[in-house]
Amino acid sequence: MDKIPVFVAMDELGPDSPYPVEVTVACRVTEGHGLLENDEVVTVSTSPHGVMTPDGREEFSVRRDQLIS
Question: Cβ-count burial of 44 within 10 angstroms (0-12 exposed, 13-18 middle, 19+ buried)?
Fold first, then answer.
């Protein structure tokens, strides 16, 4: 949950847009570790852009294949 400009260009979303929507969030990988066979889980931080959950979390474990360059 954050202000729209954090996620998309200003003209892409508005009050009448259907929510929730899939977005990308800038992050940095802080740690990586194995999971199952070739799947790899990494810890990412969204702190470089000040994005966090309502309860203040800014580190998340995600599969590496969920990340884009």
Answer: buried
* Main-chain phi, psi angles of 30, to 5 degrees: -110, -20
Tokens of 27: 């992050």
CA–chain centroid gap for 17, Å, is 20
pLDDT in tens, 12-59: 777 788 878 777 788 888 876 655 555 688 899 988 778 888 898 999
Kindly report, residue by residue over 46-60, the tens digit of the pLDDT: 887 788 888 989 999
Do the Cβ atoms of 59 and 43 come closer than 8 Å?
yes
Query: Structure pTM?
Result: 0.64
The dihedral through the CA atoms of 30, 58, 64, 10 has a sign that is negative
